[in-house]
Amino acid sequence: MKRNITIIGTGYVGLTTGACFAYLGHKVLCFDKDEVKIERLKKKIVSIYEPGLEDFLKKYERNIKFTKNLNNAISKSEVVFITVGTPSKKNGSIDMMHFKESIKEVANRLDGYKVVVNKSTVPVGAGDWVKNEIKKHYNGDFSVISNPEFLKEGSAIKDFLEPDRIIIGVEDEKSKEIMLDIYSSIKTQKIITDIKSAELIKYTANAFLATKISFINEIANICERVGGDVKKVAEGIGADKRIGKDFLSAGIGYGGSCFPKDIDGLIKIADHKKYNFQILKAVMKVNKNQQKNFIRKIKQILKKINGDTICVWGLAFKPNTDDVRKSSAIEIIKPFQKLDYKIQAYDPVATKNAKRELPQKNIKFYKHAFLAAKKADVLVLATEWPEFSEINMQKVKNSMRHPYFLDGRNQFDSGEMEKIGFYYKGIGK
């Protein structure tokens, strides 16, 4: 059965969710307070970079509409998905301001039975708060659901339509059947659980994946000291089905909008209950140290050759996204800006966002990777964009003042780079 669905918030999660529900045949109405964003979306202009998303919105436009009228959005729906941002505060706790505002505004407009679905990443216990808040403003029948998202930037549409699982935290049979109906076209396991467990699953999944990344980075540091190759170690342990090969790529640390935020959030949840989550605190420390170690390597080279110019390839926290939030590239660039080194930077899509994130001091952005490397003393690869593998590296080497190459993502083969004439250094080799 096709359902009438409202999405509150047209950010990364909300827009992807709405587009995919439209693809599945549901009637979707997306609401956002940002009138400029809504007008642009009505013209199918997307402000975020996500492969395939703009095409999806155009192809299935008959099933998805955009509005700034919340009364209309609520009255025409039977299921309301809350997808607003819940960023970290400076102390690591979750900023629930926009989420709470959205719930209050929805509660004041309920006019009959609705299913209110929390898709934003919220602390454990938020579902109870939502129920109590709605009851303050509405005395009719409603249900609250926790339905966490597991979308990876760069592959969000595929992740939504071909997920490993769908988590539905629910407390009554009626809303459970509605949610199962909404997702009936997606053939994967649907895990039905209580709301608190569903809220915790999102945090736990990201925390575990971040732990794998920090673990393999620790192994990479050992490999550098004993003469091992972390890529071979990762291949060897990843072949064990109990471990798996994913998230075992050594590098300069994780970033983005999810891992750092969710790890901070889970630690704060544990602290609130007076539990010391030692492993996750170590994961955070390892990630920061990985970036510091990489910075130290760059400094050692520059001191050795008396160099002052660094080329940085990649500014996004990972390929196929323009997201620079908590990007390792950004964290590496900032200290060199303060020390008055010259930065020559390139990224295929994230330059605009990086300019907002970085001080406009001692940095120049280029429109091509080759131009960014010209007359540089050290080439630093911070994001493993596929296009870097297609570049003529002999030409790059010849254009540099000194041919030092620090590959922070192990994208290139050390033997090939050394044959070209680079002083090449990867991670864990």
Write the layout of secondary structure elements.
Layout: E1 4-8, H1 12-23, E2 27-31, H2 35-42, H3 53-59, E3 64-67, H4 70-75, E4 79-82, H5 97-107, E5 114-118, H6 126-137, E6 142-146, H7 156-161, E7 165-169, H8 173-182, E8 189-193, H9 195-226, H10 230-238, H11 259-272, H12 278-305, E9 309-313, H13 328-338, E10 342-346, H14 351-357, E11 363-365, H15 369-373, E12 378-381, H16 393-399, E13 404-407, H17 414-420, E14 423-425
Parallel strand pairs: 1-2, 1-4, 2-3, 4-5, 5-6, 7-8, 9-10, 9-12, 10-11, 12-13, 13-14
Helix pairs in contact: 1-3, 5-6, 9-11, 9-12, 12-13
What's the arrangement of strands in the largest beta sheet?
Answer: 3-2-1-4-5-6
Low-confidence stretches: none
Number of domains: 2
CATH architecture of the largest domain: 3-Layer(aba) Sandwich
What's the count of strands? 14
CATH class of the largest domain: Alpha Beta
Q: On the 0-100 scale, what is the average pLDDT? A: 95
Structural class: alpha/beta
Number of helices: 17
The percentage of residues in β strands lies in 5-15%
* CATH topology name of the largest domain: Rossmann fold
Distance linking N and C termini: 55 Å
